[in-house]
Amino acid sequence: MQDHAEATSPGQDGEAVPVRDENGAISLPFLSAASRALARSDGEALRALCADQHEADIADLVAALSADERPQFIELLGGDFDFTVLTEVDDSVREGILEALPAEAVAEGVQDLESDDAVYILEDLDEEEQEEILEKIPDFQRALLKRSLDYPEDSAGRRMQVDLIAVPPFWSVGRTIDYMRESDDLPDEFYEIVVVDPSFRPIGKVPLNKLLRSKRPILIDSIMDSPVQMIPADMDQEEAAVVFERYNLVSAEVVDAHERLVGVLMFDDIVDVIQEEAEEDIRGLAGVGDEEISDTVVDTARSRFTWLLLNLATAILASAVIALFDGTLQQMVALAILMPIVASMGGNAGTQTMTVAVRALATRELAGYNIRRFITRELLVGLLNGVLFAALIGAVAAVWFSNPALGGVIAAAMIINLFCAGMFGIAIPVGLDRIGVDPAIASTVFLTTVTDVVGFLAFLGLASVLLL
């Protein structure tokens, strides 16, 4: 395998074509060479171009091709196309490819994959499409895939690998090694051997390094590590990722409702889960849902419309608060100039608190025992920052408009709004989490509304009472 940072591929004339440019993106010469081979339907040139390239590089190449070129690319490569590539592309790209390919080609491609990768490719298809593909897969493998697909979406059962090595505790090290040497059904990659009782419940595990360092006559139960960290198959994948992080696991046994072993979760799958969940939270905070860079204009606009509409409604609410003080604003233009400062500072301060709170909730760091301490800290931080910025903006406003009273009003409003920003920045995410709503998606809109309304009410209300 080549060094991916400096990987090259033979072009049309045999010259070395860089796979990626200096920014890490697929290089234009590599993409152009692939497009020319597709235009000529030259499968031999395409196979030479893609030979020995990592699946991540091929995935980025597939994503860079047009929607019409992608199925042709796979068909020309034929048996040389590794369907693992489809686990590396965006969902919309993968779905478009699977819809365009014949069911026979998809069935043949997923048969060579590890079970977790095969499930990842098939899970977003309609049930009819899944059944059509599964019918063309051998019975035993089809049963394993159907069992994984029957588990809830985004669960450990969907992410687990069913190919594993399980042995009884009374086997010797030598017998275990001989079994692995003689077996044709070993997983492509594994790091531990699971030890099971007669009911196929996991009771321990043996890391490969410990197995290879032990004498052949030694029994497995004398070198196994126990107890094992079992993960229920219906556990949410995000919770499983937290377990991996907490206990520094490389793999974990997945069990059914009766604690029987049904698969293993590997660290590489958990890395994908962590990345997916982080991206989901980031997109949720920005109100873009499950949007991907490969989505069409219509799909992108549709996904953003709902949140923009909700933002419009909250903006109208803030404007309605301002309208209550239209007479005050007409009498003192300086209020209109300074008013956005209070709301903006409150919004930014609240977002800081909210971001920390959402992260703490996602990583299970914000539990019942420390919520009160966290709320107290954020309230004090909001109050302290409020006092500091109140002194700063109060002095600026007093000098700017030659009106010390106006400086005092905006200073008081700043303290009130930053204090409320700290309070609601933690209260809104925690409250949404308690009622089962994803705080990463819904917190921003509510928080912005609160800080705008409180900021305008505090500033304009105090101005009405004290200045006019």
Provide structural commentary.
The protein has 468 residues and is mainly α. The chain folds into three domains: 4-159, MgtE N-terminal domain-like (MgtE N-terminal fold); 166-266, CBS-domain (Roll); 297-466, Orthogonal Bundle (Tetracycline Repressor, domain 2). The chain contains 20 helices and eight strands. It has helices at residues 28-39, 43-50, 55-64, 69-77, 91-100, 103-111, 115-122, 127-134, 139-149, 156-159, 173-182, 208-213, 237-247, 267-286, 297-323, 326-331, 333-362, 368-400, 404-434, 439-466, and strands at 8-10, 16-18, 166-167, 192-196, 202-207, 230-232, 251-255, 261-266. α6 packs across α8 and α15 (297-323) packs parallel to α20. The radius of gyration is 29 Å and the shape is globular. The protein starts with 7 loop residues before the first strand and ends with a helix. The model has no long low-confidence stretch (mean pLDDT 87).
Could you list some keywords that capture this structure?
468 residues; mainly alpha; MgtE N-terminal fold; Tetracycline Repressor, domain 2; 3 domains; three-stranded mixed sheet; 20 helices; 8 strands
Quick overview:
The protein is 62% helix and 7% strand.
Helix content: 55-70%
Beta-strand proportion: 5-15%
- Could you tell me the radius of gyration in angstroms? 29 Å
Through-space gap between termini: 77 Å
Structural class: mainly alpha
Helix-strand string: EEHHHHHHHHHHEHEEHEHEEHHHHHHH
Name the CATH superfamily assignment of the largest domain: SLC41 divalent cation transporters, integral membrane domain
Residue stretches low in confidence (pLDDT < 50, at least 5 long) are none
Number of domains: 3
Global morphology: globular
CATH class of the largest domain: Mainly Alpha
CATH architecture of the largest domain: Orthogonal Bundle
- By DSSP (H or I, 4+ residues per run), the number of helices equals 20
Report the mean per-residue pLDDT as an integer: 87
CATH topology heading of the largest domain = Tetracycline Repressor, domain 2
Strands, total number: 8
* Strands side by side in the biggest sheet: 3-4-5
